[in-house]
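Hi R.,

Here's the chain you asked about this morning:
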Amino acid sequence: MAKQSTEHHTPLRQLRIPDEEWKALGTYVGDRERTRVVREFIRWYLHWPGAKAPDPPRAKEPVTIDQQPADT
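And here is the predicted structure, written out as tokens:
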């Protein structure tokens, strides 16, 4: 099988995010939108022209500090 060209594709990167955070993000933005939100954040953080911080969606039930996983 011929190797596909990756010229027009974004290279795959590894990013470690705790399961609880990744699942919660998927709940708010949808499983297929998480990567878009991360990319938007990176562009905003780097101060790229025209970049805006991603809008956090309104939670149906706010997460309280008691519900957040403790840092280990």
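One quick note: The mean pLDDT is 80.

Cheers,
M.
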